[in-house]
Amino acid sequence: MAESPSSPAPPRFPETAPPTPLDAGSQALAEALHSSFAIVRFLMVVLVVVFLASGFFSVGPQERGLILRLGKPVGEGEAALLGPGLHWSFPYPIDEVIRVPITEIQTLRSTIGWYAVTPEQEAAGTEPPVDPRTPLIPGVDGYLLTADGNIIHSRAVLRYRFEDPLRCIFGFSGGTPGRFDLAGVSNAVLNTLNQALLHAAARFTVDDILTRNVLGFQEEVLRRFLALAEERNLGIAVEQLQVESRPPRQLKQAFDQVVQAALRRSQVLNEALSYANQTTNRAASEAAALVSRAQAERTRYLETLAAEARRFEGLLAQFERNPDLYMQQRVAETMARVLTNVQDKFFVPERADGRTRELRLLLNREPPRPSPQPSR
Known about the structure:
The protein is of the alpha+beta class. The chain is about 45% helix and about 15% strand. Helix 4 (about 180-200) packs across helix 6 (about 215-230), helix 5 (about 205-210) packs across helix 6 and helix 7 (about 250-320) crosses helix 8 (about 325-340). The longest helix is centred in the C-terminal third of the chain and has 70 residues, at about 250-320.
């Protein structure tokens, strides 16, 4: 189909003009900008590498690590704890690394209940001078009230370690959730120790704390401390707890006299108990000997009676077989036993006809004459 002579002609674009050559200054500027961009890119790569390399951290042999990513632990439970060695995390503020010393033994000393003493005196083992006329100063000298209304000095030394880092960081009610503050945890443990000491002192008398039940008082302090530590989610394990108690220094002489009197009382009681035990043991031994002899005599008597009964039964059988012969034998045995040491013995039996026999004895006999000696 032929084009209409009235149709418009297609538009014609101008040809692209050739690039205008740069002068020497522009060329140098372009090359400088290109070099600057390369340096900036290199610096950015170096900064990224340094930023990522700063995420490496190490956990000591006595520590456990924990990575908090945007405030939340990476992992759950024990899996969130990192052991000793080299680890990596995103640098702050993406990740935050918390280290908890779990095997290092921490030592705390109670701050209440003890009289004022300087660190130098404590290190040297000396005590400040005391005037019996000077009372206790509440703002300086610490003391505890006992169950019977007395005043004593007492302090506790606690050795512990962090057993559960997760509870120290997330369960500790006295700290900031998600952060581990060693000083804050130590203050909380110290406050708990002071409260346990106050609680235990109010339930024991002064004599029990100082002399009678020292171990019981220490165990009560430990029991109360463990209960409070569990209630406050401290996450610690107690290695050792020692409690030292003393009477007020102003009344030391009076307390010493009371202690001496108690010692003398105990000594007298012990001597009395020892004497009572000796007397009781001796009486028991004598009673046992008497009972033993009585039982032996009883046994011997019963055996004798049994033997006599058996002998009587045997004699009865003989008597029943021939009473006359039996009587004659018994009379002969009796006479032989009775007249054992008699020089002359005469036995006069009864006559068969029942008549009496006449017996004449010459009592004053002439002594026998000696026989004449044969002559030689």
